[in-house]
What does this fold into?
Amino acid sequence: MNPSLFTQLSDSLADEVARMAPRVAAIGLRHGRHLTATVWKDDLILASEQALPQRDAFPVRLPGGGEAEASVVGRDNATNVALLCLSAGTGLAAPEPGTLRTGGLALALGARRDAAPTACLGVVNSAG
It folds into this structure.
């Protein structure tokens, strides 16, 4: 018996989350809070500029349980992006850019405080 289309989609999404899990990290904030960051490449992570407090450095929990310090390299409030440099590299290269189309499915990954991945599925509202 062939798996249903729904089961195939579900399995594919779970596989993609597992493949991308090494790209999410958790930036430690105060009072037990954290902010998800995306590991862009070896020693650089991206986060929401507006959600990142005005400090120069932050503790970061990396995928797989590692920890590092991250220093703010730059902030751009126009695009809501903050770039931080990690004190220890992740060994990851920059990902290949994908194709974005209006109406396509978007899999958004986040990180729990321990850097374990979380996932949400949505539809691309507008591209370009």
In short: The beta strands are 24-28, 34-41, 44-48, 57-61, 67-76, 81-86, 105-111, 117-123. Residues 5-20 form the longest helix (16 residues). DSSP finds one helix and eight strands in the chain. The mean pLDDT is 93.
